[in-house]
Each structure stands twice: as C-alpha cells, then as structure tokens.
C-alpha cells in the first residue's frame, strides 16, 4: 500500500496496485475517538438498563474508550507485522523497524527520536504527530487533555506490532506540546 502519488505510467487496473488517499486515513483517525466515546456511552447505558440521557460514570467510560481504541490499534499493529514478517533477533532492531517502517507506513514519516536505557525501556518521540497536527483549542492545557485519547490507538499499534514480533510490552503516550507526542515502551519477558 502506498500513500505516494502514483507516477505515470501506472496501470489502475493492476490487481496488485493499491492506493490510499491519505486524507481519508486522517479523517478515519480523527473520527475514531468520538465514535469510541459514543459506543462506550451507549454500551454502558444498555448494560445498566438506564436511558441514554443519564450520565455514565466518566472513569468507566474513559477506560472503555481506552480499551476500544487500544484494541483496534493492537489488531492493526499485528496485521502490519504479519504482512511483512521480519526476522529479528535483537529487541533494539525490532524497535528500529517499528520506528522506521511501521511508523512510516501508518503515519507517513519516521519517528524523530529513539532513546533507550538498554534495560527494556524505549522512548519514541514524534515532533509532528499527524493525528495531532490539526488539533487546536482555546487554551493549551485544554488541547493537551483533549489530545490524550488520540494517542491510545497508536499505543495499540505499537503493542500489536511488538507482540507479533514476540515482545510483550506496555506502551504509554503523552504530549507536552502539540503536535508532538512521546511514546514510552517498557518491554517485559519475550513470548515463547
């Protein structure tokens, strides 16, 4: 799959050629968070037998949204690695593959910075994280709070990709200034 504009001559009838409009992908990522909130709210209301007008516990709703977005991202990450199953022996090489190849495939750019303590902790920094580039609010603190759910899907992508390569990890993301994002990966014991 390619985000690049096809150069002529190309054959649109070629069954192996796949093209994706990047605007559609950006809009999908933007709409996933509100959709997850709506489904979490509806699911909680029907489970509790309440009408949809009653307020759902905010903490439970946030957890449900996190689970939904992280799970979607996890499956996407697994699928991306299964497609081009690389063979790595070193965890750092797997993280570099994630930063260069997987990140480029999903977000059309490489991670800007990778740091590690060589003890299983990796910090990935993306200074212009695409899902956050079009976000604006009246205050910067409000924007940072609103941006957090948009980081849950990419956390799932990272976890899913690493899980497909045999690494069990926890991933946390934060943003200190829009549109930048920092992802912290803590690896645990590898799967056997």
Explain how this protein is built:
The structure is a single chain. With 192 residues, this protein is α+β, with helices and mostly antiparallel strands. 49% of the residues lie in helices and 12% in strands. Strands 1-2-4-3 form a four-stranded antiparallel sheet, with helices on one face.
Count of DSSP helices? 6
Beta content comes to: 5-15%
Helix content: 40-55%
* Average of pLDDT: 84
Distance between the termini: 31 Å
Order of helices and strands: HHHEEHHHEE
Uncertain segments of ≥5 residues (pLDDT<50)?
Answer: none
* Assembly type: single chain
**Estimated structural class:** alpha+beta
> How do the strands of the widest beta sheet line up side by side?
1-2-4-3
Broad shape: globular
Round the Cα radius of gyration to an integer and report it.
18 Å
Main β-sheet: number of strands, strand sense, barrel status? 4 strands, antiparallel
Total beta-strand segments? 4
Short description:
With 192 residues, the protein is an alpha+beta fold. Helices cover 49% and strands 12% of the residues.
Features:
192 residues, alpha+beta, four-stranded antiparallel β-sheet, 6 helices
Task: Summarize the topology.
Blueprint: H1 22-48, H2 58-83, H3 91-107, E1 113-116, E2 121-126, H4 130-133, H5 140-147, H6 152-164, E3 169-174, E4 181-187
Antiparallel strand pairs: 1-2, 2-4, 3-4
Helix pairs in contact: 1-2, 2-6
